[in-house]
Amino acid sequence: MKIFDLQQAREILPLIKAIVSEVVDKRSELYLLEERLEEEQDPLEKLYIESQIRELDQDIRRGLQKIEALGGVIKGLDPILVDFLSFHENRYIWLCWKEDEEDINYWHELNEGFAGRKPVEILELKNPENP
Hints:
Elements: H1 6-39, H2 43-69, E1 73-77, E2 80-88, E3 91-98, E4 106-109, E5 118-119, H3 121-126
Helix pairs in contact: 1-2
């Protein structure tokens, strides 16, 4: 698994955001099709909708695999949460990003989840390379 510092994670974020944008669009389409499927009575139309759902699901999975290939770790799907493994003060941590955020502004310990997020400024203050 790739280990990122904050700058490296921020440099790759535009690529991640582009993929996430596509995935979010497909996720919205998927939700609409799932609603349509529940309401549809015609068996042939149901089969068609089911095939569209499978195709969108595969597209979403491919997008998530691209994110993982870039080194991001998917931690949530709605909203999409992407963590980047990092090393700080002799321990591993997660740098974390949520689909509607402009930048990587938070981090948390490995054993903490989204609720344990703390501002990255804390890391920058403790970093001896940043006086």
